[in-house]
Amino acid sequence: MADIEATTIVSLYVYDLSRGMARNMSMLLLGEQIDGIWHTSIVVFGREYFYGAGGILQCPPSGTRLGQPNQIVNLGTTQVTRSIFLQHIVDLGTSTYKGNQYDIFTHNCNTFSNDLANFLCGTSIPDSILNLPRTVLNTPLGQILQQFAQAPLVGAGIADNILPNLPRGRGGQDLGLEIDIRERILAAGGLSMSDDDSPTSSPAPVGRPKRDILAEVEEEERREREEKLKNREPPIVFRDFGNSVEELLDELEKSLANVELNDDEMRCMHELREYALGSEGSWVLSDEFLNLIGRILLSGEPGIGDDSRVNCLKVLAWLAVTKDDVILVLHQDRRDHVLMRYASHVDQLSPSCQEAVALLICNLFENLSTSEWLLYISEWESENNRGPTSNIRVTTKVGVHALLSKEFKDIGSALVYNFVMKERLGQTSLVRSILPSKSKSKVFDDVAVEMSLALLQFLSERPPEPLIWRGLKCLLRCCQLARAEVPSLVKMVGPPPNDLKGTSAKCDEVIDAINVILSTIH
Length: 522
What we know:
Radius of gyration: 27 Å
Strand content: 5-15%
Strand order of the largest sheet: 5-1-2-3-4-6
């Protein structure tokens, strides 16, 4: 199942820096019962990632001087690729998680773990860990400890390091810092560490320049792209919007002129323009960016009309075919599902908004990473108690709706073509054939059947030749993906593919291939 869903397990490693002392002595020292002084890290892709005064660091799992964690929490699985994850780590290490921004109480290893958990899995780490600094600070001794945390000790280490290479074994200057703080905490209570607790010396982490990390990530991404592009059908996308992206941004701002935007939203509008028109990456978009998009698309405020929503969606569709790192924006949407929640209501939107949604979904097939995001089968709860859904089901709904629309069949047929030509569907068809009928990965078979029914109706309307060819190619692909269901469906529902013979030579070639499969059905 892991191979089918292309997921990776994400774990939270939890360490007690007090080594049990907090549980035994917190009432004496703090007047509050706490179970531990927690240090956390995220383990994914075979490495352990954490944050401290040395910046973002990595090591083999359990490879710090703290040894084995007190607890391992399964946060779930992620469909974020390793290369995308590493790029995200690099961006964090040069923005919000520099070493000199570390604060033991307010911006620490646990806030980093929480942000990373949300990025990878759309979930948070336990509140008991996140709230610990507030619990400690609310005690008299906590006020004393805060003074220690602001001392030069916390600023020590290698500032602004990104993904340093920790020595294999028990490395990590960062954890030496936290253990030193632990020693001060105990000293503030009139205690000291025992000889057995004293940390052993170890080499400091070796920093690597950002350009080396980026070069490594880019090289890995290049190899992945070359491998995947060998047999990939080029997607059909749309780059002509009738307006330049600058004009679309102007129109978006003009349409929101009567809407009262707060300071964060005004900043997000500026960041969007900077990202779209400049050379900066998606890191320029702050965490509040998707809140603004959600307000435009989902709030239903009287002052926000369809013109705002259409211009917003068209800007995003333009970004989808011009910015390779737009996937990072999509992964930030894993918790609230703003874009997919709006797209799931495609049948209830105005025609102009329906077309803009279809355009965005279609253009997101431009890049391998964003197209994989569209096909995620991990379920999330839809609103209004309509039950669980998933990205792949929403993508299917938009594709079918656009394919059968009167106004934008061109976009709809391109979207469906991009969808069913995805190599991932073909790679898993054999494995799916031996899975139980209730297996979640059977969703691909369900999608093939739903797409086939829509394609048969689409072809019965005899659209222009380029669209007939797309429809026939998609129907052939669906027959190949779900041989147990689709060929029989084609023969039973019709129209017979031979009815479209003579449309063009390349259409006839696809029809002949479909007929070969249909001839095996009795």
